[in-house]
Amino acid sequence: MDGQARDDTGGSGGPGGWGSLVVSASALLARHGRLAVHGPWGSGKSTLVDEVAAGAGGPALRVHAREEDQDLPCSGLAQLWDGALLTGPVPPEDPAARLGLRTAAARALGDQGGALLIVEDVQWLDPVTADVLGYCARALPSDRLSMLVSERSVRRPDRAARLMGGYPPLLPVEAAGLDETAAILDALGLPTRWATTLHRYSGGHRALLAACCDDLMDASPGPGALAGRLPPMRLRRAEDLAAAWLDTVPAEVRTTLRTAALTARPDADLLRRAGCPNADDHVRYALRSGLMVPQQPLEQGHLADPCVRFAAGALARAAPLTMDGRTRRRTHHALAGVVRDPIRAAWHRALAQDGTDPATARDTADAALAARTAGESGLAAELMLFAARLTPADRGEVRLERLTEAAHDAAVAGACDLASRAAQDIAEARGTPFQQVNALLAVIDACGQDLTGAEPLFTAARKAAGQDPALLAAIELRAAVRANVAAGDSARALRHASTAAVLARIGADVVLEAAALTMAARMERVLGRLESAPVTLAAALALAVAPPRMGIRNSPEYLAARHAVFDGRFAEARAALVDLLPVALGSGGAEDLAEVWRSLAEVDTALGACSRALRWADSALSITATADLSPGPAWYTAALVHSHGGSFEQALAYATRALHASRAEHDALHTTRSLWIMGAVHLHAGHVDRAAAALAEVAELEERSGADDPAILRWQADAVEAFAGSGRISRAYALLDRMQHAVQPHAAHAVLRAALTRSRALCLYQDGDSEGAVELLDDTARAFAALGTPVEEGRTLLVRGRVERRRRRSAAARTAWEQARTIFETADAHPWIALADEHLNRLTGLPPGPDGRAPRTPGTSLTAHELRLAGLICSGCTNQEAAQQMFVSRKTVESTLSRIYRKLGVRNRTQLTAALPPASDA
């Protein structure tokens, strides 16, 4: 039964969060009359018990066991009825007295009439009380006595289970998930982009999470006043709470945990060799108590990873706080001699050093270079900062060079705090203008999309740059990025980028010139300058600067791939991105990798490789969380991909998150994109009024930005459909007329032209011109097929089916929807498969089959679409000829034919001819 109970609940860390956990607990208690909840210290067990008890109604009795009373006989029973059961001394070994207590307690509880007995912290319940209450659980049925028992245990709560007969339903109070953490922050008016960092620091542990939020609320002047990435600050309540949790374990275990907290990948063997002789037992204790978890989850078929980590970053921070400086340095020295990674060994040696030391500084700087080569930019920045600290004062130039390198590595890693520390040290040491400006620009670069508070950095950088053209060019280039991302002002961004290119040329900085020309080409494209943008991009490419020198995402090679995406040349874009991927993987730049993965997700979505696109999007989400990048872009991409290959519900959740994060960071670019995908998902789900509202806001933002190339963000066709569907047909036609002037006969606008043709067909359909709509939809389907965008082709066929249904041509509607479904199946476009099935189910008027599909034609397992293809094949058509007659690709014919063979149990065309039902009409 306990296994089934776990399946029913789905855990508390899932999308439902705390509310779902309370509902699950209440349902299990109501169904079974018994429930054991369990989790580590501070996980929320008592709060859960209180909420479930409050919702249960009826009388409730409570026993709260305490550690200091676990050896005191009857200490639990004394809490029931003010100790009325205990009329005299009760020797624990007296069987008669024990029997008397059993029967008296059972009688008293049974007389309560459906009472709820709550036992908290059963792991400390004294043996006599456990025996008596266990007897009551066995003697009284659940309709006369319900029991809700909590136990501090990460694993199976054996004490709670034994108390209730051995097999009660079990409910783990798991850590809060990332979604729940984001929801809590949003409810408090704190930026949801902090969710990843806060979840990592608290481990989702609800008491720690609440303490973190209290600290953040104290630091915030008011709801919504803080924005951007989580600023460096000490979360003292959380630290104190983590220390209190650590205090619940024996002192010798705490000593081992302090050592574990000082190393990145602790395991029992490492800790034992570092001077913790009982590390095996202590690690097992920490795992059982929930203080530690395996570094990697154990996967079937893989060797177990012996490394462990603290369940929450707050625990790792709190554990060594009680160590004095000398003990900490001695521990680092011991760890330096036993860790297997030479870079980490250098890290420990640097922290073991008191004061400056040229040799250790040199070794630490070498380790930083090795970390950079290995793609660990954040570690490289930290090591280079250590190297600068260890450098003697009489070697000031070397120290400044190391600080400058630390700032650069921090920018690559997106580590704003490390970049700021390096910039501050360089300013205090009066570094050269080159060093000061580059350190300040590193801080700007590390901020990612969040440039809201960057103006003081720009002011300081311009002052430090003086009249140096190369330094000013670097500043102008960042100003172009800020104008584009934060202000959404494409024209101003182009002016800054053009100025940067001229200054870089004067300063003979080829790398900067290439980056500035690339930015200028990007803005020219946004502004609709389809002729000049390729010329500017070609000039940037002609400078032949290797992409890693300027950052992959800033390189002309990457922009060329993006232009191919805008033009609808998706296969070409994919080939270019696949070439850039190993370069991005080798460079170690988190933002570069996120950008390439996001673009690959977008391209594969368009090409109908939805499963592959989901994997790219997951990779982008993962590195965004790990590197603490601005989450808006990755969430937008996840929304886009899930709207094709995942689910509309998940797509909407990601779009909502992306919109909140982008607005909080004043990221105009991704605010617009998030609104578009949100409106599109509402449209697909049938919520046309919500879709129209979101897409109307997109139209307003796009007009304000001055963007003139409508192919950069193809929202217009969705907006026309939403406006028409919500009864605003005049606005739909007005947008179509405006697009007729904006969209050029240029090949770059082919995808958008096809989408707008489909939306015009929908308007004709709304006006009652079904025949005209069908003609346009046929053209659109062929156009999307030629462009290699199957989901759009299938979407067009769905519309065609709707039009045919209105014309009372059910067979034609079924054919269109069956064709669409086949295309969606090939693309793994799951939400669209569901939409096609929904249309087909409504057509038949019958409930869907067990797999959710429409019922099949009587007498055959083949769909109408499959029957038509089978008829063509049996009449002698080749696969290519059948594809042409059915207006689908040859690949679609081949996959459909394989499915027909499988359904009919045949292997070739001869057997198919014999097996085909005679009544079928190809």
Topology:
Layout (H helix, E strand, L loop, with lengths): L1 H8 L7 H16 L1 E6 L5 H12 L3 E5 L30 H16 L4 E6 L6 H13 L5 E8 L5 H6 L6 E3 L5 H10 L7 H8 L3 H14 L16 H11 L4 H11 L6 H6 L5 H11 L2 E3 L13 E3 L2 H6 L6 H12 L5 H11 L5 H16 L3 H14 L5 H18 L2 H13 L4 H14 L8 H11 L3 H17 L4 H17 L3 H17 L5 H11 L4 H4 L5 H12 L2 H18 L2 H18 L2 H17 L4 H15 L2 H17 L3 H17 L3 H18 L10 H10 L3 H14 L7 H17 L3 H18 L2 H17 L3 H18 L2 H15 L19 H11 L4 H8 L3 H15 L4 H7 L7
Parallel strand pairs: 1-4, 1-5, 2-3, 3-4
Antiparallel strand pairs: 6-7
Helix pairs in contact: 2-3, 4-5, 7-8, 8-9, 9-10, 11-13, 15-16, 16-17, 16-18, 17-18, 18-19, 19-20, 19-21, 20-21, 21-22, 21-23, 22-23, 23-24, 23-25, 24-25, 25-26, 26-28, 28-29, 29-30, 30-31, 30-32, 31-32, 32-33, 32-34, 33-34, 34-35, 34-36, 35-36, 36-37, 36-38, 37-38, 38-39, 38-40, 39-40, 40-41, ...
Quaternary status: single chain
Q: What fraction of the residues are assigned to beta strands by DSSP?
A: under 5%
Shape estimate: globular
Span of the ends, CA to CA: 54 Å
Q: Give me the secondary-structure category.
A: mainly alpha
User: Considering DSSP H and I runs of 4 or more, what fraction of the residues is helical?
Assistant: 55-70%
| Tally of individual helices | 46
Biggest sheet descriptor: 5 strands, parallel
Residue-averaged pLDDT, rounded? 87
How are strands sequenced across the largest beta sheet? 2-3-4-1-5
Q: Output the radius of gyration.
A: 33 Å
- Unreliably modeled segments: 1-15, 221-226, 298-304, 846-860
The count of DSSP E runs of length 2 or more, i.e. the number of strands, is 7
